[in-house]
Amino acid sequence: MNKLQRWVYGNWSVPVVSGVLIIISFAIQRLAQGAADPAISPQWWLDAGSHVTHAGSAFTLGDVFMIAAATVAGYGIVVKAARALIAGVIGIDLLVSVAAIGAVIIGNFWEAAAVTFLFAVGHALEAATLNKTRSALAELVAVAPDSAIVVREGRQLEIPATQVRTGEVVLIKNGAKVPVDGQVISGTGAIDEASITGESIPMEKSEGGQVFAGTISHGGFLQVMATGIGADTTLARIIHRVEEAQDAKAGTQAFIDRFSGWYTPAVMVLALVAGLVSGDVVLALTLLVIGCPGALVISIPVAIVAGIGRAARNGILIKGGEFLETSAKISAVAVDKTGTLTEGRPQLTDVVVLDSALERAEVLRWAAAAEAGSEHPLARPIVEAAQADGVGQHGLSGTVTPVPGKGVVSDVDGRRVLIGNPPLLVQYGVVDDGSAAQAAEVLAAEGKTPMIVAVDDRVIGVVAVADKLRRDAPEMVARLHRAGIEKVVMLTGDTRMVAEAIGNATGIDEIQASLLPEDKLDAIVRLQRDGHTIAMVGDGVNDAPALATADIGVAMGAAGSAVAVETADIALMGDSLLKLPEAIDLAKRTVSVRRQNMAVALITVVLLLAGVFAGGVTMSIGMLVHEASVLVVIANAMRLLRNTSSSTAAPQSERITGRAVQEVST
After folding, report:
1. Of these residues, 63, 93, 181, 336, which one is catalytic?
2. Burial 465-498 (b: 16+ CB within 10 A, else e)
3. CA–CA separation, 468 and 448 (whole Å)
4. DSSP string, 183-230
5. Are strands 449-455 and 458-468 parallel, antiparallel or unpaired?
6. What pLDDT digit, counting tens, does each position of 515-540 carry?
7. Is 192 a catalytic residue?
């Protein structure tokens, strides 16, 4: 399609043509009126002002152009109104259609042309604005790579990105777009992940690192094994999610649709009654035009789409307008500890020997053997430490029985090994003389997670692991409070002492420790019962019940998780905790803009209706003011597209010494 065809079928062709015809009409009428002296004005100007008889009625040539302008601008409006009526819907287009046709019938050609022209301009502005607010989606589509360099049969081949096969090696050179999701198998480089996570600082990548399609290399050379291609990439999932979210209707927008369903017929009845009572057809037609709730109808979608688009640019995926509106009401935030407030990479810190017949390596060996078949996140650092010390077990232990909230019971070489907390010992009848509990208490007070190790019926030692507090965790809590959040609650399965160490370092308002997954669910329900609108931040696995029950479920670091992108109400693509208060603040600003827009639209309609009954407001003036209100609504919503994010500022926790850098438990 060439430029001319794009313009003809574009949003602005109808109002431009209609506007030109109106200008021609005015020019003809003005020149005809001023052509009083034949010696000054040519005869054809006088003829332009003469009357042309048609079907028994008298029209000037200027009137013909004015009717043509109304026809050009009003044709599409009438067609839409007719289609809506066939579908049983009485909409705004019907009001304008009846008013314009009525104006032509009574000879108010200028009013008919003005009303249809201004309404067409309003439609074009609305379409252009919604396209602008959807620019985040267009930008995401634009970053999708077109080609890829793969290694096949020892040769480098440049092929379309869609033809890369899973498992193939893709080469990422300096300045190139990453064409696939994949894992780095060789090389080092810096990758700009702004299109995915919203973070402007390039991330260093090396062997084992993860890369995403649509990101850009800013240096280095990487060999990447493709794990996601085409529609299976994170970028494709983001585009799909943003597209769905921007098309989904918010609760308020659905209400406005229902409101329009009875408001439009009410305006038509009002106009009919006013015309019959006053005998003034012009008054009735003017009321139809003035009563158009166009600004009200666009006030909500333009704000919601702009808000979701701005969030997507910043690496925040919001599922739809309904969730954006709910996020603005959040009064309490519940956060998981492991991998949320902490980095999620625990390390073994201590091995306390309580059996004089054993060495440290023996205690570590038994602990690692018990955890070898466990899926618990604390198993990995114990097993890795044992392997590093050369005492790791080859193969897996026998039966591994997880005991939720307490620990693990394993069969190792025919012997029962327990690793967990004191209640686990009690459950299995293992007697502790107090030394294990005391050692665990000391380690917990240091912000570590202790686990008692028992072989058969004998306690042999205590191992402890610890994770580091995220540097931006204290700043996140502070910003949540500044964003109007009344309470930040930590829900963790860890012990009270460990949880308090983290709570003291972050400024958490309330700590609930030693919780099972169902206990976290109960905690969310209690907060909701207290009148709070809850956002729950978690990893989506152990916290799944709580995430599903919360008013808003938030997934952290969702860039590498297809499930999180598709299921979370809000998905924070990067690992920055500061994205959470940013999302809530953006939601509040979006709802505030929506309310302002609705107020502008309603006040405009009320004032115009009052002006009609008081006299002085004509159809064309009313439509002009109405379209001006549409412009105000649009301009107000466009403010949301400005990036006011402060997430790149240095976290407050970087300025806190001591406690913020201490190692705390998972």
Report:
1. 336
2. bbbbbbbbbbbbbbbbbebebebbbbbbbbbebb
3. 10
4. EEEEEEEEEE-HHHH---SPEEE-TT-EE-TT-EEEEEEEEEEEEE-G
5. antiparallel
6. 877 788 899 999 999 999 999 987 65
7. no
